[in-house]
């Protein structure tokens, strides 16, 4: 069997069945058949451009330290110096929807069809997983001509470099789907939604833009709600207003992590916030009386 | 990064190793008061610090400001001193108290009024004012600190209280100053990731903008304090050996100049005068003090190197004294201290006059010699190889280029083997599931029980449980 017919088989299966190994009954017969031919490939890479990649070659440990100083990333000096046409979108225009921690790219490619007018960017810190998403998007672009031109992925640390990529008030939506909960108290500063980082998200989000969070860990959901409510620049959107928002449904069903939660019969908790219209009067004014915490109160 | 010098009018606060001194500078006599480390109650427990403890007590940052409190007519001096051991002390001295303390023999030290324990070591401090209430015209002084975790806190100087203002993720703050942007009071914070963030104060969650342009860590920033209402200037220097001038209104870079023409070393501290026409830069491990003039030429603004001053000893810190229009330079021993007067005639270029002797200068020098205080080599912390600690490590995690994992086909066999083992383990786990476990437990950990499993040996108990909650 040549590599091309292999990939066709995998693609058919991947669109109908959940990826991630449901049970040996589905995949073992073909696995035995593939075994004898796999090592004879004189290919320079495991997946060719245009082939849908297989997850098993791109697995990487889920938890990593985003605050580490050992990773080096390439990032532009300023947002206006970033050339988006090189690797990302055909015309040089900046993305408007961000999927932070996109993982294997389920939500990114789903949003590309739901929001055809916006440009979706997935950000992921792990190299192998970013490569998987990139190959997936290339394969989808090839298979569906004309579609998926507005989806792309980038390997970067969004906690540190968001202001380098995006100008003030340039994003319409940000998604935080099933972020790493970092349960230990000493690791709480690594959480992606925190008091400090919400100010940065408020800076890159346009007025009235939306911030979506979803998680299966109740404690993390309470943390998200507590911090977003406390932040003066975000206000919660009620359930009734979210009824006709297709992104909420996508966030709950299209990500790989949400499918895993479904398999394990877990609960999903989500919250959507709006970045308020920036008006000096609406931002609460601080004075000597209410500004300081007493010293015995612990800050987060 | 150390901020060891601060001044307000004729009062200078200087941090020498682990001792802080407040100097009143006047032409006739000079008086010095030492600010002690411990509050009054624990005076009896004071011991002479051992050698390694002296390191912990070293001062990392000082700041001075004078405010007339709402209920008093005289001005009170507020001194903030931050040390290596994360302690942060605030001293409140009125003018009369200063006189009495400095003239008493033997000289008594002033104890702190409030001592805070900061979560991380503080690297830079500045003062600002916070309104006491809506519609009120009264203000209270507030200290704003930047620490090594990238967080900025505001501390109350009148009673104990603090607040987290903002945070730069995992990047230490190297400089902090107040700035005016569209008539709003703003904080400018510079960090190791080449960013200078301008956030409003006191609503510090609102970011006005980022000043991006440095290609390496920023070492120091300063804002011009006396410009016209509709403009503001900020100047910064960094590890990329450039000095950049920023427009505080448009939040953009105006111009920059490379300091490599004048010195090979990294610029470590910077000061700009009140009118924003002169910029002074000192370099790490170098005796050079370089002065730049801001030239405006039909809307084109450039920084031009104008004067260089060779200091008698290595300069460590430089700060601008607005009321006397001069630069204060703290140097290593034995000379320790120097002024540079800026004489600006309208129309003509500025001229500079170094003042190396004077009442307060001599007083400080005598103090340093008498107490045998050793000033640090450099304010940029260095590691064992002599590289600045602020420099980011170059090592990349993992492979790059042609060795990336997805370009190596031999991984195909490895990945298949791993998948096979993973499936085997899952099968083992399913087989060994004890029948006594709760139904919910079984459902949540192994999702495979929802499908009929052809390879499970006929344990009728498990299969029966399957059928009960398959479609729940």
Automatic annotation (TrEMBL), chain A:
Entry EC no(s): 2.1.1.33
Active site: 180
A GO term, aspect molecular function: tRNA (guanine(46)-N7)-methyltransferase activity
Region (Disordered): 1-45
Residues that bind S-adenosyl-L-methionine: 101, 124-125, 157-158, 177, 255-257
One Pfam match: Methyltransf_4
Recorded catalytic activity of this chain's protein: guanosine(46) in tRNA + S-adenosyl-L-methionine = N(7)-methylguanosine(46) in tRNA + S-adenosyl-L-homocysteine
Gene Ontology CC terms, in alphabetical order: nucleus; tRNA methyltransferase complex
Main location as per UniProt: nucleus
Top EC group: transferase
Keyword terms, alphabetized: Methyltransferase, Nucleus, RNA-binding, S-adenosyl-L-methionine, Transferase, tRNA processing, tRNA-binding
Entry's localization field: Nucleus
Pathway: tRNA modification; N(7)-methylguanine-tRNA biosynthesis
UniProt signal peptide: none
Domain of life: Eukaryota
InterPro entries: Trm8_euk (IPR025763), tRNA_(Gua-N-7)_MeTrfase_Trmb (IPR003358)
NCBIfam families: tRNA (guanosine(46)-N7)-methyltransferase TrmB (TIGR00091)
Family stated for the protein in its record: Belongs to the class I-like SAM-binding methyltransferase superfamily. TrmB family.
Primary role: Catalyzes the formation of N(7)-methylguanine at position 46 (m7G46) in tRNA.
Name this protein carries in UniProt: tRNA (guanine-N(7)-)-methyltransferase
Species name: Nitzschia inconspicua
Taxon lineage: Eukaryota, Sar, Stramenopiles, Ochrophyta, Bacillariophyta
Automatic annotation (TrEMBL), chain B:
Broad class of where this protein is predominantly found: nucleus
SMART domains: WD40
Entry keyword Protein biosynthesis: no
Any single GO BP term: tRNA modification
Biased composition range(s): Basic and acidic residues: 404-417
Keyword Repeat attributed: yes
Compositionally biased intervals (Basic residues): 418-434
Residue stretches of biased makeup (Polar residues): 457-472
Segments of this protein annotated with the region Disordered: 394-472
Pfam families in alphabetical order: WD40
Coiled coil location: none
Location in the cell: Nucleus
GO CC term, one of those recorded: cytosol
Name of the protein in its database record: WD repeat-containing protein
